[in-house]
Amino acid sequence: GAVVSQHPSRVICKSGTSVKIECRSLDFQATTMFWYRQFPKQSLMLMATSNEGSKATYEQGVEKDKFLINHASLTLSTLTVTSAHPEDSSFYICSASDRGTSLKRAFFGQGTRLTVV
Amino acid sequence: AQTVTQSQPEMSVQEAETVTLSCTYDTSESDYYLFWYKQPPSRQMILVIRQEAYKQQNATENRFSVNFQKAAKSFSLKISDSQLGDAAMYFCAYRGRNNNDMRFGAGTRLTVKP
Q1: A97: CB partners within 8 A, 6+ apart
Q2: What Rg value do the Cα atoms of chain A yield, rounded?
Q3: How far apart are CA A79 and CA A37, in angstroms?
Q4: How far apart are CA A74 and CA A30, in angstroms?
Q5: Considering only A6-10, A28-32, B19-23, which range has the smallest mean pLDDT?
Q6: How many CB atoms within 10 Å of residue A7?
Q7: What average pLDDT does the segment B54-67 reach?
Q8: What confidence tens digit (pLDDT) does each residue in B30-48 have?
């Protein structure tokens, strides 16, 4: 089955630094990738939709200058948390849809636990 | 905007018994997809079952089945012959036919008692 690989699985960074999270579709072409944030014991909240070759669409309340998304190829999207603060600590999950069944099926990465100290 | 509501924060079931998790949603669209995802402690999202709104027949995947009531906008998940490995967070999700993004409910934590 389709696989989405997210890296790193865990990262600790200092306040003020930037962190990049990668999301790769390993065996299919992902025209669209989604980035979610999940706080402890809460649901997944959509942050942004990333379309290959175009600018990401951000949900209301998500700072696009803080959470930079790049989707330069059909197999890779990156989320960069810039000037990270402790309140950015969270679990970030990406998902991807393939071209063939883009709306029927989404595949999720393993998630990244970000801790900002 | 579409919303997904899971009214049961926690549920418990005895091993080998049956449990039903509730989900309701709100939408003005006529065609869409509904999903149940399982999130174990590893946090990996695992698709349990999917229902296409234009299909009247309830989806079934082995021990997992849904009761899809389109008019009532209800989409419950039934787990039969519960196993210890079924213990996890379960999220109900909605995706519109012409939208790419998926909206999740708040989740239900399922505990399976041996």
Answers
A1: A30, A31, A32, A33, A103, A105, A106, A107, B100
A2: 13
A3: 11
A4: 5
A5: A28-32
A6: 14
A7: 94
A8: 889 999 999 999 899 999 9
The residue to which tokens 């998926």 are assigned: B102
The token pair at A102 is 């883009």
More confident residue, B100 or B68: B68
The nearest alpha carbon in chain B to A40 belongs to B43
Whether A46 sits inside 8 A of B102 (CB atoms) is: yes
Q: How many CB atoms lie within 10 A of CB B74?
A: 16
Instruction: Give the minimum alpha-carbon distance from B85 to chain A in angstroms, rounded to a whole number.
Output: 19
Tokens of A114: 């970000």
Both tokens of A65, joined, read 């200058």
Instruction: Say yes or no to pLDDT of B111 above 90.
Output: yes
Residues of chain B neighbouring A110 (CB-CB closer than 8 A) = 42-44
| CA atoms A46, A47, A53, A55: torsion sign | positive
